[in-house]
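To whoever is on call:

I kicked off a structure prediction for a single chain this morning and the downstream step that reads the tokens threw a length-mismatch warning. I double-checked the sequence; it's 262 residues and nothing unusual in it as far as I can see. Pasting both halves so you can look.
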Amino acid sequence: MKTMPPSIDPHALITDQLNAEWRGLSGRPVPRRWPLAALPGCDTLGDAFDTIAWARRHQPAAADQMLLTLLTLRTENGDDLAGRLVLQALLGRSVNLARRAHRIGSPGLRGDLPQLTAAAVGALWHAIAAYPLLRRPRKVSVNLCMDTLAHFTTVLDDRAPEAVDIALLESAEPVFSVRGPAPALEVLDALSWGIGVRVITPEDASLLLRVYCPSPGHDGGALAVARELGLTPATVRQRCSRAVQRLAAAVRSHRKVWADAA
């Protein structure tokens, strides 16, 4: 399975090359083999990109269905152009992931932003290629972002457990998004670490983000997320609590090992 689009040189400025490539692709007509209902009113690939971008902001469920259709074309039909559109639609998330890793200082790549960006884009392409269509047909955008985070984490050296803030993980209040950007970044660090050491799944991380660190325009909290998922608030709280407990236990265990080895 390929982990990078074959036309991309990993030693080049990958975002510049991808965006330049997309400027050439965006004027192409949407392939006739693609289901027209999945991308309504789209004549070109640029139209499709704009439609997905708008839907991700205003109609997330519709955007997820578009992305799922494209992922299905990529996985079942080997349609790399469909995968390329998904890559472009989520490219900004990879750039943000690389910039965040650069800010906190990645020991594995020594904080080299071009290398971190290439690694993040490669992680996104891997997530696209390996997406489990049948198992996760909903919340596709969030799942892809969390899978990318998990794959990206594997290319970095293990972080010191001290980088994970237990107080944030164990807080009973949803403080992760409403107090400014710093808490959200710390939570993302914690979740990426937890996925990397396999104590939580990307689905667990997605749920915690939706409850405690909702996207702009979305309500957080167990009650709102329970309504979206068709679950009871008690079930959502229980799942969050279990995930947080596993994270906290893993952090304590790693800290003890680290302290004993010091």
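Update from on-call: the warning came from a stale cache, not from the record. Cleared it. Sanity check on the structure: The chain has a mean pLDDT of 76.
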